[in-house]
Specification:
The protein contains 23 helices and six strands. By secondary structure, it is mainly alpha-helical. It folds into two domains: 379 residues, no CATH class; 119 residues. The longest helix is centred in the C-terminal third of the chain and has 26 residues.
Length: 537
């Protein structure tokens, strides 16, 4: 006769799946998946121009202990200051010791926080919403790709979500700690990127619109808010923003510049003096359908479609729990989408600010559909297929197609030829008796030589020019755009008197691509060529 199992050990599967233990096990698995997609092979993709610029600016901060905000370019200082942490951990003291992995570890960190912060949704909704939001954030190709990109966008999205959640907590409790936190987050947003003002407008407008849905609610809310709390929150924002823009009060001018910059970026956003002008539907095209012959299908339709279902559900059958929060999120997301679509200036990473709202609405839709018996099987199959395809795309984006123009998130990206060019330059420097002190001349119209300053950061004598400079003698290593060939020939062979002309040899048979449409040639003076040739295997 078989011994019966103790009744206390019989744990129904359904009870386990709805337990806190199961929730945290699933959440841990999602975190592992998110980390895997974000951390693997960070060095593989060449740096984009923007990444290289930020990397060089960080190098200046690291070596000189100084940062000055530029209101015309490069955005705010939070990314630069955040990079000090991995540099201190590794003990890096100059830019030569800073690696691409170190730079990109910063957005990876904030990208992981964006997944973790979904836990803050637990008091507002079901556990299934939190799990769905974490899973979609973990596998979304857009959020995976730009969590590996040394730019500010992931930070801005994270601070925005945290701001919205803090404001909601304050609205419910009127506890000063939440308004102080909200103010600090607004300050961080300001010190991250100038487009924060779009988010503030959308947050304020959505909040007002939700309060107007119930008669007298706006006035009632205004009356119950302690005005001292609002002043405290504003001071919190000003202090945090001022600390960062002034480099901790060493450059007070940063405060003024952080305000004047909005006019500069307003002109840029409206299409003045910029090449990044795209039709209103471009964001939707990048997100919904990108297919070329011989390339994968890139689409985040799985998430956007569920987001639309979630938005419709919230207004047709509002949730009983925290109804105002979900109505606010829907209106906020719609406003952000409309504003960003209307702005002529568009880049793929900019859409993360409104796309994250759709992702949260999609998570709400998943939980609602899964709770109904009639749609449960459908949504389980839909999520399985959708997340499988999204995960496949994320792997392809970071593995085989990380510089492929069919990838909708590749935008004016650096070509892999840069590795060939930089390796050639380093070979020549090693062959030279001057070593890394060998003089280099980089000549590109419009200063279009980035990200070369990053990749040549270990070379001590590099001159960067947007024209052929006839005042200085030619370097033994010259990188030049083909459009500069006429002026270069004059400098090398026409201006020097007979007997002082040196022969220059193309190092490569064909030009190399800096990025699509931007070609460069590498020329070497004959004596250095001979030194290199004798030492080459």
């Amino acid at each position: 006769m078989r011994r019966p199992v103790a009744a206390g050990l019989k744990v129904p599967l359904k009870s386990f799946l709805t337990s806190k233990a199961a929730f945290f096990i699933l959440f841990a698995i999602i975190l592992f998946l998110a980390f895997f997609f974000r951390i693997i092979g960070l060095e593989k993709r060449p740096l984009h121009t923007d990444e290289a610029v930020h990397g060089v600016k960080f190098g200046y901060l690291l070596e000189n202990d100084d940062y000055r905000y530029d209101p015309h370019e490069y955005h705010g200082p939070t990314l630069i200051f955040s990079t000090l942490v991995p540099a201190w951990i590794k003990g890096s003291q100059n830019i030569k010791n800073v690696s691409v992995t170190m730079l990109r570890s910063v957005p990876v960190f904030y990208g992981m926080l964006l997944v973790i912060i979904t836990l803050s949704l637990l008091p507002l909704t079901k556990r299934s919403v939190t799990l769905s939001a974490a899973l979609l954030t973990a596998v979304s190709p857009a959020f995976v790709f730009f969590s590996r990109y040394y730019i500010m966008e992931i930070m801005l999205v994270l601070f925005t979500v945290a701001l919205i959640l803090s404001l909601h907590r304050y609205y419910l409790s009127l506890q000063m700690r939440w308004i102080i936190l909200a103010g600090a987050l607004a300050g961080l947003m300001h010190a991250t990127k100038e487009t924060c003002i779009i988010t503030w407008i959308a947050v304020f407008s959505a909040g007002i619109m939700v309060l107007l849905t119930k008669k007298g609610e706006l006035r009632k809310t205004w009356q119950r808010l302690p005005k001292a709390h609002l002043v405290t929150g504003l001071l919190s924002a000003i202090i945090v923003s001022s600390l960062l823009f002034t480099s901790f009060f060493r450059h007070p001018r940063g405060i003024i510049d952080s305000i004047l910059t909005f006019q500069i970026y307003l002109n840029r956003g409206s299409g003045d003096l910029t090449a990044h002008i795209h039709p209103w539907f471009s964001y939707f095209q990048w997100l919904l359908w990108n297919k070329q012959t011989g390339t994968p299908l890139w689409t985040e339709f799985w998430i956007l479609s569920l987001g639309m279902v979630g938005a419709l559900r919230i207004f047709s059958s509002p949730p009983q729990k925290h109804r105002h929060f979900w109505q606010f999120l829907t209106i906020y997301t719609l406003l952000m989408t409309l504003i960003y679509a209307a702005i002529p200036y568009k880049t793929p990473w900019s859409m993360l600010s409104f796309y994250h709202g759709w992702l949260l609405l999609a998570a709400f839709a998943v939980a609602e559909l899964a709770a109904q018996r009639a749609s449960r099987i459908f949504i389980i199959v839909y999520i399985f297929l959708g997340c499988s395809h999204l995960s496949l795309q994320s792997w392809q984006l970071i593995h085989d197609h990380d510089t492929d123009e069919s990838n909708p998130y590749i935008y004016a990206h650096t070509h892999r030829d840069i590795y060939k060019l930089v390796d050639g330059i380093h070979e020549l420097c090693r062959a030279s008796t001057q070593g890394q002190k060998e003089c280099l001349e980089i000549i590109c119209p419009g200063d279009d030589y980035w990200p070369l300053p990053w990749y040549l950061r270990d070379c001590a004598n590099v001159g960067y020019y947007n024209h052929v400079d006839l005042q200085y003698p030619a370097a033994r290593i010259i990188v030049s755009s083909p459009s500069m060939q006429e002026g270069l020939v004059a400098k090398l062979y026409e201006l020097p008197p007979p007997g002082q002309r040196n022969l220059y040899i193309p190092f490569f048979k064909n030009g190399v691509l800096l990025r699509d449409g931007v070609e460069l040639d590498l020329y070497v003076r004959k004596d250095l060529w001979d030194e290199w040739y004798q030492n080459s295997p």
